[in-house]
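ESCALATION

Customer reports they have been waiting on this structure for their group meeting. Please prioritize. Original submission:
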Amino acid sequence: MTDAAIATRRQSLVEFANEYAARRDEIAVAQRRGYRMERWTYGRILDDARRFARELEARGIARGDAVLLWGDSSAEWTVAFMGCVLRGAVAVPIDPVSTPDFAARVARDVSAKLVVRSGKFAAAALPAPALDIETLSEAIARHSPLPFDSPPLARTDTLEIIFTSGTTAEPRGVVISHGNVLANIEPVEREIRKYLCWERPFHPLRFLNLLPLSHIFGQTMGLFIPPLLGATVIHVDSLKPWETIETIRRERVSVLVAVPRLIESLQREIERGLERKGTLETFRRNFAASEKRHFLLRWWKFRAVHRQFGWKFWAFISGGAALPEQTETFWNRLGYAVVQGYGMTETTSLISLNHPFRTGRGSIGRVFPGMEIKVDANGEVLVRGENVAMSYRRGRESEAVVGADGWFHTGDLAELGPDGRYYFKGRSKSVIVTSAGMKVYPEDLEKALRAQKGVRDCVVIGLPHGGNEEPCAALLLASAEANGADAIAQANRSLAEFQQIRQWFVWPDADFPRTPTQKPALAKIRAAAEARLGAASAATQGAGSVSNLIAQITGRAAGAASAQEARDALAGMSSLDRVELMGAMEDRYQVDLSEAKFAEATTIGQLERLVREPQAAPVEHIFPRWPQHWLAKLVRLAAYYLLVWPATYLLAAPRIKGRENLRGLRGPVLVIANHVTYVDIGWILAALPARFRHRLATAMRGERLAEMRHPAANLGFFAKLSELLSYPLVLVFFNVFPLPKESGFMRSFSFVGDLVDRRWNVLVFPEGLTTTDGRLAPFRSGIGLLATRLGIPVVPIRLDGLFELKKNERHFAAPGTVRVSIGKPLRFPANQDPEVVARELQHAVEKL
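Update from on-call: job pushed to the front of the queue and completed.
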């Protein structure tokens, strides 16, 4: 397609669907579901989008009607959005962190005819019929995937309405047209065409998109740019730094798209890893010495970091907020490209952009093609162009985005450098934009605080934080008995996740300093807040957000009126609740918590101290892929049939029962068995059919594997040598992987998902230890998590007769003394209680 054709051919995004058709057999989306990765082709997304368009037609939803999209980024979200495009319906994305009340108000304001929402929001009362986004494919399967006859659409037709915050005040949406989005796509497409020949050796490019599709920049990098390259977009359900790094390496990601806070968290993760190894100071010296070195020399000097991320990874794209210059410098110096731009929802994402191969440090780039920018006498950025949104939608009323002078006033401050690039200088509006790229309006937080008993007045300001801001509240209490901590906790319960107030203080005087018109003097209040709390303070006072997380997870403390009730909820949490809480805390604070230290915590204060001073996990567990290589598999099979199989039948030829239960079953499967001795695997391998035996990975106590890999210092020379040799031998001959008892088991579960994705069967001993009396120990609840989140059959196996041999220290037994019983495969839905599943699995093994 020529440049002229790009500019004139497309009159709506309906025509953009052709890009999906042209890439039909290529992978468009890879997404994490449970512990598995699920892959969708461009053809599958297009077919389901056509089916969804027909579903809208069957429901009488026509051109211009609103459809609410409320869920996490996924292939199904893409299907729903593209289906709206094909039908001419108006998509109304809602941020997943928005409150149900906010979603309901938006649905009423836009007269939504349908809500496509995540199952976790099923309890929300919404004024329209709803479909679950996770089961959308099944709900629309009856419709035809043939091309859909879309209504005639023009560039001026409304594509979507994006609400720029989950505010508790009157929701305000930005009305975006087809032309607004096309004006952003077309210049990028022209630029991409210049470099397509260089892309071919690296095809397919893979984007790990950690920006939600409910945001316009998330859509740009997740929906519109990838089809132009035939790229794959990867969505994950966790923002833990270590999981992000592992995903980048495992999925061979080329580019990470994220908000600054997540890019900063990856820097901290790298530094924590170096600190654990005792090499952080050496790294810092090398880092300082590499400032003016050539790119290739820096890449080689820090190749250990590149090895962690994988050799295909080369760039960060930062959006949603300003990236701190220190973070940009860190990754640049390590040899990565850091692409930062500047834009707003009102400008359909981009105003200025750094070229990926010609970046300017600390800059937000040059003006985006098709846009006009000028900086007025006050330093405010003014913008105009086809990218600028049509209007605002507030309630059922509309208001112009562009001012009477024909320019959109961004409220942001910048200056034009001598290099032709723009440099961000701050914000003139009161809106607070956090490092996660979320807009927080002080009046919304103030309204929530003033509704609390004991709060006479309040002011919310934004305190600087890494080039962005975080909200801070100054309170005037009604009396000496009023409790500011309780007021903050209660207000936070009515606010969306990203609006939470984590910094606050009680104003020391009887009233705020005020202007002649009696408005609070914000400059003086801000100066006092910075002096009292520190501009970069992240301390949480009172009940804090940890209490809110506990309330969200358990539901029991959702209406707690005090921090003490939240502490009581912590004491009553189940083991699985605590696992979820730990993951939620790691996501929110972007740290890795020691699972052992976390398990010891009994109060919220202890958990908050863990967040402030995260402890490194005491044992580092390694999850190598080389034991699954075909060469290692060949060695393993030779060793099994030449050594292990004859030894098993020589020691105690087993009697096998229940093999007929596996007829017709194909892998991958999860095999579970009671644990009697350290050589149980020999009899299990003998009992399994070859199709499972030949592709079986076995969980082993992670702490024991770590001891082999790093023998204790007090061991003798030969004992150390024996341990060091045992480690690779046990990996290659039995294809084991670590399943830790104390710390790191979540990484182990993630690795199990990776094994299953690669069509390996997995053997786990759910008791976690060998029996001491011949009876089954209680199954650990983690097996329930695996069974529900892997989505594969579970094969129960029971070993009998081995305990008697073990107890009597006998090594040989008559044939049939050892009995292996195989039960019928079991399946469990993803939403079933893992603890209930663990009990069911234990019962299944016991009754064999």
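Sent to customer with the following note: The first helix runs from residue 3 to 9.
Escalation resolved.
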